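Contributing new complexes? Match this layout with magnesium ion.
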Amino acid sequence: MAKPIIQVKALGKKYKIGATLRHDTLRDYLAHYIKSYGCSLKNKNNFRNSEKYTGLSSLKAKREFWALKDISFEVMQGEIIGIIGLNGAGKSTLLKVLSQITEPTEGESRIYGRVASLLEVGTGFHPELTGRENIFLNGAIMGMTRAEIKKKFDEIVDFSGVEEFIDTPVKRYSSGMYVRLAFAVAAHLEPEILLVDEVLAVGDAAFQKKCLGKMGNVVKEGRTVLFVSHNMGAVSSLCKRGILLSKGRIKTIGEVNNTIATYMQGTEKLSASENLINHPNRAKGFRPLLTKFSMGINNGIAYYGKPLEVKISYSFDQKIAVPQFVMSFHNDCGVKVFTLFSDYQPNNIPNSLQGIGEVVCKIESLPLLPGSYSVSLRLWQPGQKLDDIENVARFRVEWLERDIGQFNWDSSLGVVYVNAYWQLHNDSTMAPIY
Ligand SMILES: Nc1ncnc2c1ncn2[C@@H]1O[C@H](COP(=O)(O)OP(=O)(O)OP(=O)(O)O)[C@@H](O)[C@H]1O
Ligand SMILES: [Mg+2]
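Output block (do not edit by hand):
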């Protein structure tokens, strides 16, 4: 039976908020060591021991909290696992513990292989060290000898494109330069395990693509990747399994799209009813002629194939001739899925309106597939826009019952469900072509 390449058991990391730290992490201590003694680092075990150096901590604890608690999971060789969660959930801390940049407070993590980490800007490299020194630092942390690192050095510098700045402290790098070098290091030191923290957020589009492609290749070569990201598209396309962290604990671990769905349900602010008078999304220069918006649904959930009723209140201090209420529905990629017009569609709205009132729009059967959607609202009179509010409401569509077979139709398949009948057109006189 295959053996896990990463085993994490009951891992916990406690931080002391407001602590004064001399050397917060092993990396800080190593940076000090490299500056003082040059790159004479050979053996990883030396570093582990050297963390016990007594000058390491002068702590004045103010408050303690668990950034990670009761974390247990296993990763098999060749897996690519997405780690997701809200800001502060503990994702970076988990990668820092796994890459031995920081010690766990309790529990253990066993890693059977050479680890390279591409951590969030500010942790992967030490800011005070130059690009060159950081390459040696990273290699040393991976347990490589100075000679081994030297062999790879030119390749790394070449790939990163930061040759000119290689003897500049990385704190002077732009975030793009920094990430390029970090990526080059991780890609060329041939780790068995690659830990990647949110680098995609920093680079330009070409770099992001290169980075995603590289991670895919790393896995094809049988290596293992743990990938932290807020980009659900990238996580979903790269990873088979996902871990959802919430307040330092594992909330869900399993099939990646289920994990993402659990995350999205927990984070979305759904609002199907809004007072529009002081709405922050009203376009500049418009008075609040539309005053209230409300969808007849509970908890922000609407259902595919079921009726949906939307009410829009107005307050017109003057007569509005031929008012046109316009509602557009957008999916969560911002694509406008459909628009409804009060005057071009069947209606009984009078040709002019004044004072306070409410119009109701009834959709007989909602065609949207399960997913998240938002609504924008406009009021027109011929040739003139009178009110304009983007994103007035946010709601989810779900199945009430799975009445379209047992198949998991969802927003990964498109935005709307189109009914169709598939039939075998049988003609026994036709011979096979091949
Ligand atoms: N060195 C530290 N000292 C004290 N608290 C810390 C330290 N590093 C992280 N924390 C705290 O630990 C918690 C988890 O932080 P972490 O950086 O792991 O979150 P994250 O999931 O990576 O968030 P993000 O999505 O914003 O990157 C946060 O509350 C953070 O403030
Ligand atoms: Mg983080």
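Reviewers usually confirm one structural detail per submission. For this one: The domain at 4-267 is CATH 3.40.50.300 (Rossmann fold).
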